[in-house]
Amino acid sequence: MSDVESDGRADSEGWGICEERLLERHMEMARIGETPTGGVDRGALSNADTDAHALVMSWFRQSHYRIEVDDVGNLFIIRAGQDPNASPVMTGSHLDSPPNGGRFDGTLGVLAGAEVLASLDRHGVETRRPIELAIWMNEEGSRFSPVTMGSAVRIGRLGLDEALNSVDENGAVFGPQLQRYFEKLGLAPMPRPRLDPAFYVELHIEQGPILENRGVRIGTVSGVQGVRQYRIDVTGKAAHAGTTPMDMRKDAFVAACRIAAGLTAEFADDDGRTRFTIGRMRVLPGAPNTVPEKASFTVDLRHPDPRRLAEYDAKISTVAAREASPCAVAVEPLISLEPVVFNPGICDLITGRARRRGLSVETLLSGATHDAANMATLTKTGMIFIPCRDGVSHHEDEHAKPADMIAGANVLFDVILALAERTDAHAAIAAPALI
């Protein structure tokens, strides 16, 4: 096996993706919504997010592609298959980012999927099944709640009306912003039910340190741990900071801190599988000389065991009520996602194709949720991870090595081609180890 093959790159005949085009398009996409310090800021339905969708569309104006958008803004690039009645193979991810996010989260999966389509054209490959590239709307949920909104509407887990009525922190409503998106792209939404895919495979950076720390090139993702998110609202009484004795105060912020500390202690575990995060804290009225009347914060809880998550659901309100006195407290559930197990057959296919390219591969669980978690309730689903530097994600320092991007995209190419079933005249003789 040559050094090129062992790096996961295309063989001497160029079988696989076009490496230069993938990297060039990645840099082109990174300029949309770029921040001064090297990240991107592309909130869902922002001008930058819409421009990113338009850029991908511009790569697929050929007659043998269809471009469709559904009524929540998911964009689909469709490459026809030989069998018009066959369910498609789907790949994809998202282009929106959190504020001051990175260039790789979500974007890599979209660009790699686009490269798979373009490279199949370059090789003159025909497939029995159609292949679809999905660009999911509002995966991050950082501007409009909830997370993975587009794919959740697609599978029926979230109602369209609920999505359209979502409001961002500046009062903008999702529905009117979506209409602007349709108009800018020049597309009319397709409200009809789409043909369900036969398979869904998504490429993503790990967003964690395991692959890099172990020197592994490819992660076969076995599933996604469950998620619970809550907003905890504490209400006290505003008072003058200089005149109100400490023992006579109803300080909402102090009570919120007690609740946060109590939850932190409650969710500590011996095996290190629980993930507990307080991600946002707001205090009102926010004046330096006023005792806070209100404090709100979010809680994010994750665990792979649904029984443990059910226990946590019960404990949240108990701890909050115990620690809030003398203030009032309300706990509002925001997100409830059960753990997901990906299709074992697709997991085996990913592992096998990675090894055939001479790549080290390891099976691991995803700590972050993805659109693939929604799609797993609809069809046979798998995910491919590549390492990211220091496990950093949702930050401008997010980075993946070009060689790892290429390796992951080539594994995706092999897996998608195997699932789509090659039908052209050279199917039996070209790159037999990858068919």
Write the topology of this structure.
Elements: H1 3-6, H2 19-30, H3 47-58, E1 65-69, E2 75-79, E3 89-94, H4 107-122, E4 131-136, H5 149-155, H6 160-164, H7 174-185, E5 199-205, H8 210-214, E6 218-224, E7 226-235, E8 239-240, H9 252-266, E9 275-284, E10 290-291, E11 294-303, H10 306-324, E12 328-337, E13 340-341, H11 344-356, E14 361-366, H12 371-375, E15 380-386, H13 402-420
Parallel strand pairs: 3-4, 3-5, 5-15, 6-14
Antiparallel strand pairs: 1-2, 2-4, 6-13, 6-15, 7-11, 7-12, 8-10, 9-11
Helix pairs in contact: 2-4, 4-13, 9-10, 11-13
Descriptors for this entry?
9-stranded mixed β-sheet; globular; 22% strand; single chain; 2 domains; alpha/beta; 435 residues; Alpha-Beta Plaits; disordered N terminus; Aminopeptidase; 4-stranded antiparallel β-sheet; 13 helices
Structure explained in plain terms:
The protein has 435 residues and is of the alpha/beta class. The chain has 2 domains: 319 residues, Zn peptidases (Aminopeptidase, 3-Layer(aba) Sandwich); 112 residues, Alpha-Beta Plaits (2-Layer Sandwich), CATH 3.30.70.360. It is 33% helix and 22% strand. The protein is built from 13 helices and 15 strands. Strands 1, 2, 3, 4, 5, 6, 13, 14 and 15 form a 9-stranded mixed sheet that branches. A 4-stranded antiparallel sheet has the order 9-11-7-12. Strand 3, helix 4 and strand 4 form a beta-alpha-beta unit. Helix 2 packs antiparallel against helix 4, helix 4 packs across helix 13 and helix 9 runs antiparallel to helix 10. The longest helix has 19 residues. The radius of gyration is 23 Å and the shape is globular. The chain starts with a helix and ends in a 15-residue tail after the last helix. The N terminus is likely disordered.
